Amino acid sequence: MSIESSAASILQRGVELDTKQRYTEALICYQEGLQILVDSMKNSTGNKKIYLRNKIEEYMNRAEQIKEKVAKLKEEGKYHEQINIANNSTGYSYQSVFGHFLDEEVIEVKVEDPYIRSFHQCQNFVRFCEVLAKNCKNLKAISLLTTKEDSNSDQIKWLGELQYDLQKRDITLVIEYSPTLHDREVVLSTGWIIKIGRDVVMKPQ
């Protein structure tokens, strides 16, 4: 497959997502496809270069329109996206599900999840924090509200170790416990509120 064909495939996927109003995912496809076209244009001449420049301008304009539309809807509190993950599905990761919401503008993240108690649940939270630290270059604080496991659990020790590791990255982890917590959500300082269904369990691949 040629470079232009690869770009066309990615951009076409962006158009499909755009049509379904899955704007943030569409924007990622547009950005990836545009980067390929820009790189290709650098080595092109004549009519091909003109054609690529026109395509780049076309998709850049659409990408900017999406950014403005999403910003306006977020400001009005009217924007939301939904990702449906079927039972026993595989191939999903914290990066693929949350990655397009995470960037250098995220300074603080608040997590409410009653299911950060057992070893594998705490390990999943560690992986999520790793994705946050990797994507959010200016991240300063993460707060976790969860439920406390019984007195024989190592939950406090596991989360304490995570606190120590994050502190070495200049990220403060604040942990609080609530016996009445039921819902799961992630709130980003950029305004995104990501609600997670109770039956969604992330497992290492």
Model description:
Helix 5 links the parallel strand 1 and strand 2. This protein is an alpha/beta fold and 205 residues long. The protein has a 5-stranded mixed sheet, with helices on one face. It is built from 6 helices and 5 strands, in the order ααααβαβαβββ.
Query: What is the CA-based Rg, rounded?
Result: 20 Å
Oligomer classification = single chain
Strand order of the largest sheet: 3-2-1-4-5
Strand portion, in percent? 5-15%
Helix run count: 6
- Write the H/E string, N to C: HHHHEHEHEEE
Task: Provide key terms for this protein.
205 residues, five-stranded mixed sheet, disordered C terminus, elongated, alpha/beta
In short:
The chain has 205 residues and is an alpha/beta fold. The protein has six helices and five strands.
Write the layout of secondary structure elements.
Blueprint: H1 3-19, H2 23-42, H3 46-76, H4 94-98, E1 108-112, H5 119-135, E2 141-146, H6 155-167, E3 172-177, E4 184-188, E5 193-196
Parallel strand pairs: 1-2, 2-3
Antiparallel strand pairs: 1-4, 4-5
